[in-house]
Amino acid sequence: MINKVIFSLIVFISLSFRSLTEQTPEEIRQKGDKITAITGQTLSKSVMNAMTKGGVSEAVKFCNLAAYPLTDSLAKANHVSIKRTAIRWRNSKNKPSKQEKQLFSAFELEKQQGKISEAKIIKQKNGDWLYAKPIILQAQCQVCHGKLGETLLADNYKTIQKYYPKDKAIDFSTGDIRGMWVLTFKN
Ligand code: HEC
Predict the structure, then answer these.
(1) C-alpha distance from residue 85 to each of 29, 41, 149, 161, 178 (Å)
(2) Is the pLDDT of residue 44 over 80?
(3) How confident is the model at residue 71 (pLDDT cuts 50, 70, 90)?
(4) Which of 79, 108, 122, 185 could be 130's S-S partner, Cβ–Cβ 3.0 to 4.6 Å?
(5) Closest C-alpha residue for ligand 1 atom 8
(6) Section 20-38 average pLDDT
(7) Mutation probe of ligand 1 site: the residue of 45, 56, 90, 161 with most atoms within 8 A of C-beta
(8) CB 130, CB 124: distance < 8 Å
(9) Ligand 1 neighbourhood includes 64 CB (under 6 angstroms)
(10) Ligand 1 pocket, 90 CB below 6 A?
């Protein structure tokens, strides 16, 4: 009896601590979808709260992953690094790598073909799992990423440019692929 209990405990523990190399792409997809959903909601809520309080000049600090301890704790608990990237970036720190550019283009192509893209899961050479998913621009994002002089007011853009003089992340419309989540599940 005791042997049986111990045996089941060992099976249970080894299953929960399975190394990442043994995880299936489907498991990575599910984890990634959860992490990006939680992080995206947190970002979006905080940006909107800040907008209500102090307009764009207040909210400009909050569309930044680094502003959230939650992202850190999620990342640590899941042994994953969480990044947002974009071809037309606002912060040069978010520039895409060569591989990320290719993934971004693949998502763009799928969108042009009218396909709804789900995340792409890729096994890297070093055994890490990469999870990439498009970030779609929503109506409420346009105040800071929209069409200059239309959805993005010139005054607000001046504020943004004070912090990000090299910004490329404007002239987006609702439904466009604004950027991409990239999670790296470390081996
Ligand atoms: C109040 C202005 C504001 C709003 C509203 C806003 N953003 Fe941003 N966004 C920014 C700023 C500022 C950055 C640069 C953050 C940084 O320094 O990493 C940024 C960065 C990003 C990035 C990272 C890539 C890059 O270009 O550097 C993505 C992706 C993004 N925003 C998507 C969105 C989406 C989607 C929404 C709507 C849900 C949104 N943003 C709403 C101001 C805003």
Answers:
(1) 18, 17, 25, 19, 9
(2) yes
(3) confident
(4) 122
(5) 63
(6) 90
(7) 90
(8) yes
(9) yes
(10) yes
Task: Tell me how far the alpha carbon of residue 112 is from its chain's centroid.
Answer: 21
Q: Which of 32-36, 65-69, 85-89 is the least confident region?
A: 65-69
At 51, the amino acid letter reads M
Q: In the predicted model, is pLDDT for residue 130 greater than 90?
A: yes
Which single residue is written with the structure tokens 């992490």? 35
Beta carbons of 82 and 35 less than 8 angstroms apart: yes
Q: How far is the CA of 55 from the centre of ligand 1 (A)?
A: 14
User: What is the reported pLDDT for 20?
Assistant: 59
Looking at residue 117, its amino acid is: S
Going by alpha carbons, the residue nearest to atom 33 of ligand 1 is: 141
61 with 67: CB under 8 angstroms?
yes
- Residue whose structure tokens are 């049986």: 4
* Top mutation candidate among 46, 58, 63 for ligand 1, by most atoms within 8 Å of CB: 63
Give residue for tokens 């105040």: 143
What is d(CA 167, CA 89) in angstroms, rounded to the nearest whole number?
6
